[in-house]
Structures are given as C-alpha cells and as structure tokens.
Specification:
Shape of chain A: globular
Largest interface: A-B, 49 and 46 residues
Order of helices and strands of chain A: HHHHEEHHHHHHH
CATH topology of the largest domain in chain B: Rossmann fold
Helix content of chain A: over 70%
Strand order of the largest sheet of chain B: 6-7-8-3-9-10
Helix content of chain B: 55-70%
Shape of chain B: elongated
Largest sheet of chain A: 2 strands, antiparallel
Oligomer: heterodimer
C-alpha cells in the first residue's frame, strides 16, 4: 500500500509535466489547427538554457530561470516567423513536416553544441523532500504539481476572464470573422506561439532535475504529451490535463510492476488502445469537416 | 459551356501497346543491371551504390504514402528494420533460406503497417504522425532491449546472401534489378485504379468518398504498401552489408528517408531516386560534418523546413511541372462520342423514397421528419429559405452525415446505413455547393475517377481506354472536351462547376444530386446550366436539385419540395407549390 501511494505521487508529479506540455500542444492546435511537433524541443531547449546559466555560468537560479523563459519567448517568435507563418495558407501536411524539421534542427543543434553527454540540473529547493506518513514527497515533484495547478487556474482565468484571452479564443474559432472584427490575427497567433513556448519551457525546467537534461528529453516528453491529448480528447484543455496525469500514473506503475526498460512503451500501448476503442478521447473531439 | 463542339479533330489513332511504349525504360534498366554486374567497382563505391539502391526502394514507399496518398509515415526506418532483421536473424540464427527471410520481412512490415494504419487512419493526419513516431520509438526499444531475439545493441553479423548472388558485384546487380522493377510499378501506380483513388484521397477526401472511393481502405493500402517496400529494402540492405544494428533503424534514419523523399520530389519515384542519391553522396563529400555529432542531422532538419517553404514539390516536381504544362498545351485530347446516360432501374415509379428523415445536432433539429419521393426521369427541386435544412438533407442523403432516424431507399436498395462510397456504388451521384475537385489533377483525370464508380455499367470491364473514353464523353457533353488535359486550377469557377457535373455524369448514376449548381454563376452561365440540365433530363436521368434561383427551379423542375426550419411545408407540382400560401410566407414573410 505504501508503495502504491508513493508511486501514485511520483506518477502525478511526472504526469503534471506531460499535462503542461500537452497544454502547449492544445493551445497551438486550437489557434492554428496545426500540431506543433517541436513542442517537446521547447522543453529541451529551456532545460539546456538553465544548464548554461545556472550551472556553467553559475548565475543565481531565479535569474537563470527568468533568462531561460525570456529565451523561450524569443524562440516562440522565431519559430512562428520561420516555420509556421510562411506556411499558414498551406494544408496541414506541409506545416506538420516543417515543425518536424524544426524539431530535428533544434535537437541536433543542441547536440552539436553540447555533445551527447546528459547534463545535471539541481532542483529549486535545498531540502530534497519531506516524509509524510508512509510517503516521501520529493520537493521537486511538489513544485511541479503546485506550478501545474497554478498554471491551470491562470489559464482558465486568462482565456475566460480577460479580453486578450477572449480575442485569442475568437481567433482560434474563426480567423476570418475575428479579423473582420478588428482583431489582428497574426498578432494573436504570435502570442499563442510565445505562450506555448514559455509553457513548454517551464515544463522542461521543472522536469530537468528529475530526469537528466538530454537531447532525447524533448521527443520523449512530446510523445507522452501527445498521447495525453488523444487520451483526453484532442483539442480539449481539461482533457489534456487529465490525460497527462493519467499517463504519468500508468507509466510509473507500469515501470514498477511490469518492466523498466519498456517504460516509454506504455504510453504508446495506451495510445493505440484509445485510438482503436475510443478515438474521440475521454472528453470527445471537435466535429469533422463540413461538406 | 454549350453543346458538344463539333469541330474536334477526328483522330482515332490507337495508342501503342503498353509494353512497346515502355520498352525504353526496360532497355535502360537492363543496361544498368548489366553495368552493375560487369563494371569493376572498388569496395567503397560498391557500398555507396548498394546503399543508394536499397534506400531508394524504401523511399519509393514514401512516395506512395506521402506523395500519392498524402499520408505521413515517420517510421519508415522501423519497417526497413523489420526487413533487415528478418533477413539478418533468419539467415544466421534460424538458418533459413534468404528468399524466405526476405519474403517474411516484407510480410511482417506489411502486416505491421496495415495494423498501424487501421488503428489510426480513420483520424486526421496529426494522429498518424505521432503514432508513427511512437511506433518507431517502440521498435527501437525492442531492438535494443530484447537481446534474446535481436542480439541487442551488438546487432547481427555474418548475414547470408542467396547462392546465386554470392559476390558483392552480382548482389548489387540483383538489387538494381529489384529497384528497376519496383520503380516501374511505383511509377505506374498513379495510372491504376488504386493509384487514382490515392490521389483523389490526397486532394479531397470528401469528394473521393462521394465518388465511390473507399477512403479508409485506400489509405490503409497506401500505408501497408509503403511499409512493405520498406521491409523489402531492409532485407536487401541486410544481405548487402552482412551486418545490422539498432542504430541503423532509428528515428533519425526515418527523418533521413523523409528528407530524401522531400528533396527529390515526393510525388514520383524518379524524385525519390534523385533525393536518395543526392543525400547519400553529399554527406560522403562533406564527411567533416559527421565528425560533430548532430550537425548533419541539424542540417537535414533545416533542409526540410527550407524545401517545404521554397520547393514543396522537390527537385523532380519542379522539372516535371514545367514538362506537364508543355504537354497539356501540345497534346490534343482524343475525339469523343456523344455521352450515353443509361440510369439503372429496378422498375417502379419512384427512384428515391425518403421517409421520416431526421438529423439532429444536439438539441437542434436541422432536419425533422421529412418525407421526399423523387419520381423517375424527372427534375425534382428541394427549396427553402436559408437554414431550412436543405444542404443537411443532401448531406444525409449522400452519407456525409448519419441520419438520426428515418429511411432512405434508392431504386429499391436501402442505403440509410451505408458509408458514402457504397451509396455511390448503389447509384448516387452528387456535386457540391463549394466545388470539390481534385485540384492537382487534370479535368480528364477528375472525371475518370467519377467514371470508375464501382458498378458503372457504361465502362465495360473498366480498362484504362474505356475510362478515358467515358470521361472524354462526359467532358465533351458539358462542352469542355477540348480542354481535357488542363489542370483544374486553370479553369474558371463556372467551368469547374461543369467539370464536377461531368464527373458525376461519367459515373452513370441512377440519381444525380445537385447542390446549388447555380450559386456564383453569372446570368449567361445560368442559362447554359439550364440548357445542360435539360439535356441531362432528356436522357432520362433523374435529378434532385437544391437551389435558391427561383427562375431556374421553376423552369427546370416539375416537382418541388419546400423545407422550412427543418420541416417539410409543401410538396407537389411546381406551379402549385410556388403559389402555396405557406411557401410565399416562408420566403416573403407574412403579415
């Protein structure tokens, strides 16, 4: 029982990271109807930025954190201008391929600069964790869960309660109408890319002390996050979060009770099962194309 | 847009038989095989040639799935690995015949591809991209961790070759021969029934469905074929290099395959071969790039973005497009006979019997308990103000929406629960309000896809010549026969509408559904459309038309059904219905 509780805690912690990246996926998908395959690389790049500033240069953690997030915002801008924007009038296939190209470019550029050796990033807190009854609560996991909860609340407030959030929603639902109402569609898409790059970066920085900082972390996280969005129901914000948490838990239990080397395979099995039996996910999917 | 033009050149030149027209290809291929067998290469050159040959076959697979069918596959290296490991493990650990292993590898890849496709291809392309990446990662995981089977990271060495091709030189010749044969098949695929279906699916899935194509099966076929070609290529690769290890079949290699395909031109095997050749040679020339891990892949990633942005059709696509434009201008289309429409019939007065049809979207009753019966040989109009449920009715009839309740019987067959392509096979033809043509094809090719409807009795056994002939007749019927070989994009809006009608007519439907055919046409074009409808009706084809244009409707239709707020408010002979007080108030408002 103790082990089960412990695994549950770890699973939710790691699932929260998937949920954050999944949220980034969903936001871009809703704004542009495109799945950004470089979303995971945003996390990876942010983690390496932390390594550069906090470890290699030895700057204070909070300062490195702010610089890394600013760097992610910049990357979001570059990504939008260089990859998405020129292709915005094309069908989704070229855009997907371009984002895949971008993900390869980002991952291997970092590899060329930093080499294949995984890097270590310390957690935010000095205290490694606290013992609560039978369960040991790792401080980094606690932080991850807390930040995720805070971001979900922020996200809700931002999209439902602010004018900018409503403009973003309007853009994602009907670009032509939004532009006729005086909303600058290209600005809204730019904001979406910045926001989701920062979100992905945040997830990467949070998870870096738990995993190693490596080239593969981006694609691994992205894969899980995508599976999470399908499990939750594609394009659904709540679904992405629930799906992410569920996947983290399934994977942690799978690794503990079934097999460690195949840990990364469980997400895929769950994904295939959902695609076959419930492709619309837990929360249903957007309607099909109109004739 | 008038009667069939009479002044077409009467050229009844029979095309030369296929084997004769294509003999240059086979002669060239035979010379290449002879060169591969005869020339003395040193080991380094031999390896590069062997790699280029086997990789090209794998990239052919991508040209089928991505180029022809518009579906993405990011796991081609995994399928390549299936073939390679089948030959590797089969010939070493299990002491099986090379040929058997090669076959087993192809089959394993085919089955895996078909399964992956079946689980994903009903959904959008995003799913497919992610699922293939996931699959690729799993295969790599298994190759590394299932040491009892795959030998793990050490890989498999001392892989056997067939007795017949023991030397590297003769093996290369064998691979070149396979390349030539597979290349020929892939080159010809677009002109076969399956190939045309794939292109139609790529260009417009909805239109493909209502033209009688089983969209899902077509996509799965393309995907499985691509995987099988990957398996074949992998098997050849393993025999050639005698050693395989997991890192040769990683996600990075899938990206290399994708880049090769995109660079050369995704639509053609020639492009595949060009792309593969270049991307094998360039890294050999720029070896220093490989000294820094990641650098050459980073450059590939950048390549992918730049190609997609600036050269979406690749090197060969660029060359071929120029050639096509020149050919469309020079090649005169063959002359055509007059179009015959012989709508099938099981007898009986009523072609389409719709009873109690409802379609609800959540709480909204878009169509509510509607009855329509369409008489054979007449023009029946379905009218109503905006939002009255006309187009929804049409979409339920053609199977794009599923009816909430009610029954649809077409010429004695209950089609209520059929998917769109089966309804088309049962004799339904339709056009769309917002034109849905296959935009990368010529007018003739579009209409050919219509003519290929399963169950079309007007194309005999359905050979290529019969299809072309039928399509030409249909195009000539709508007055566009002399522009048959032009791409859709070069036609005006009104002409595109006519091509869509020709596409439906070529299928020789039992019932033709026209969704607002007059929308967006100017007054001359409307008159011509009216003439066209008369000529269609004169041949006994039943038409169900939706339109706003009251002049067109009242002149063309003998029978009118009026919908308002999803319900039928009037039904009967045209003039009587149009004078009906409910209809007048629905259109003009009541006092």
């Amino acid at each position: 029982m103790d082990l089960v509780l412990q695994l549950l805690f770890t699973g939710i912690g790691i699932g929260a990271v998937y949920a954050l990246v999944a949220l980034g996926f969903v936001l871009i998908f809703r704004a542009t109807n495109v799945v950004n395959f470089a979303q995971g690389e945003f996390s990876m790049v942010a983690a390496y930025l932390m390594v550069v500033f906090a470890v290699d240069l030895g700057w204070p953690y909070w300062l490195s954190f702010l610089i890394a997030l600013a760097g992610m915002a910049l990357l979001g801008v570059i990504f939008n201008l260089g990859v998405y924007y020129p292709l915005r009038h094309r069908t989704f296939l070229p855009v997907i391929i371009a984002t895949i190209g971008a993900s390869i470019l980002l991952a291997n550029s970092v590899l060329a600069i930093y080499g294949p050796q995984p890097q270590v990033l310390q957690g935010w807190f000095e205290t490694p964790g606290i013992q609560l009854g039978p369960v040991y609560l790792d401080s980094q996991y606690l932080l991850i869960i807390a930040v995720t909860v805070a971001l979900v609340i922020f996200n809700y407030w931002f999209f439902e309660r602010t004018l900018l959030g409503k403009k973003l929603q309007a853009t994602s639902q009907d670009k032509e109408m939004a532009s006729l109402l005086g909303i600058s569609v290209s600005t809204m898409i730019m904001i979406t890319f910045i926001y989701s790059a920062v979100l992905g970066g945040l997830a990467g920085i949070l998870v870096a002390p738990v995993l190693f900082v490596s080239i593969q972390m981006g694609s691994t996280i992205a894969l899980k996050a995508f599976a999470a969005t399908i499990i939750g129901g594609f394009g659904d914000v709540a679904g992405a979060i629930i799906g992410g948490l569920a996947l983290g838990v399934i994977e942690t239990f799978g690794a503990a009770y079934v097999s460690v080397p195949y840990k990364d395979g469980f997400a895929f099995l769950v994904l295939i099962a959902f695609l076959i039996f419930r492709p619309q996910g837990i929360f249903g999917e957007r309607v099909a194309e109109k004739a | 847009m008038s009667a069939p033009s009479e002044n077409l050149p009467i050229s009844i030149a029979r095309p030369k038989p296929l084997w004769l027209r294509h003999s240059p290809y086979f002669i060239a291929a035979a010379i290449l095989v002879a060169l591969a067998a005869g020339l003395q290469f040193d080991g380094y050159i031999l390896n590069i040639l062997l790699q280029a040959t086997t990789f090209s076959i794998a990239v052919f697979g991508l040209s089928v799935v991505l180029g022809l069918c518009g579906q993405i596959n990011l796991a081609q290296a995994a399928f390549f690995g299936f073939g390679a490991y089948a030959v590797g493990l089969g010939t070493t650990d299990f002491h099986m015949s090379y040929w058997l292993c090669l076959l087993a590898g192809c089959l394993a890849a085919l089955v895996a591809g078909a399964f992956l496709g079946m689980s994903t291809l009903r959904l959008g392309g995003h799913y497919l991209a992610m699922v293939t990446i996931s699959f690729q990662q799993i295969v790599t995981l298994v190759m590394i961790n299932a040491i009892w089977l795959s030998h793990g990271p050490d890989g498999v060495s001392n892989i056997g070759r067939p007795e017949l091709f023991r030397t590297s030189q003769s093996y290369l010749a064998f691979c070149v021969a396979v390349l030539a044969i597979v290349g020929y098949l892939v080159w010809h695929l677009p002109d076969t029934k399956l190939g045309r279906a794939m292109r139609a699916v790529r260009d417009n899935e909805l239109a493909a469905g209502v033209n009688g194509i089983d969209v899902f099966r077509t996509k799965v076929s393309a995907f499985a074929l691509c995987a099988a070609l990957g398996g074949l290529a992998g098997g050849l690769f393993a025999g050639g290099f005698a050693y395989v290890s997991p890192d040769q079949f990683s996600f990075a290699e899938s990206i290399v395959f994708l880049t090769m395909s995109l660079l050369g031109g995704v639509a053609s095997p020639i492009g595949s071969a060009i792309g593969t050749g270049l991307l094998i040679l360039i890294p050999e020339w720029l070896r220093f790039l490989k000294s820094i891990p990641g650098l050459y892949l980073a450059i590939y990633g950048l390549f992918v973005i730049l190609i997609i942005r600036f050269m979406p059709d690749g090197i060969w696509g660029f060359v071929a497009a120029a050639f096509e434009r020149w050919r469309a201008r020079t090649k005169a289309p063959p002359a055509a006979k007059a179009l015959q429409l012989k709508p099938a019939t099981v007898g009986g007065d009523i072609v389409l019997e719709v009873t109690g049809l409802s379609k609800h979207f959540g709480g909204l009753k878009a169509v509510d308990d509607v009855d329509i019966s369409v008489r054979r040989g007449g023009v029946h109009a379905l009218i109503g103000p905006n939002g009255s449920g006309k187009t929804t009715t049409l979409n339920v009839l053609s199977g794009l929406y599923k009816a909430t309740s009610g029954r649809i019987v077409l010429d004695g067959t209950d089609i209520t629960d059929m998917p769109p392509h089966q309804r088309t096979a049962a004799g339904l033809g339709r056009t769309f309000q917002n034109i849905r043509l296959f935009r990368s094809m010529t007018a003739l090719e579009n209409v050919e896809i219509g003519a290929e409807r399963p169950g079309n009795s007007m194309i005999g056994k359905g050979g290529d010549a019969a299809l072309t002939e039928r399509a030409m007749e249909a195009l000539t019927f709508v007055g566009l026969g002399n522009r048959a070989n032009e791409l859709i994009t070069s036609f005006s809006y009104g002409h595109q509408r006519l091509i869509e009608i020709a596409r439906a007519l070529a299928a020789n439907p039992t019932l033709l559904l026209l969704d607002e055919p007059a929308a967006g046409l100017n007054s001359t074009e409307k008159l011509e459309l009216h003439e066209l409808l008369k000529r269609i009706a004169a041949q006994g084809l039943t038409i169900l038309i939706i339109d706003h244009d009251m002049t067109l409707v009242s002149e063309a239709a003998q029978h009118i059904t009026v919908l308002n707020f999803g319900r039928r408010i009037a039904d009967g002979e045209s003039m009587a219905v149009l004078r009906h007080p409910d209809v007048v108030s629905a259109y003009l408002g009541s006092e």
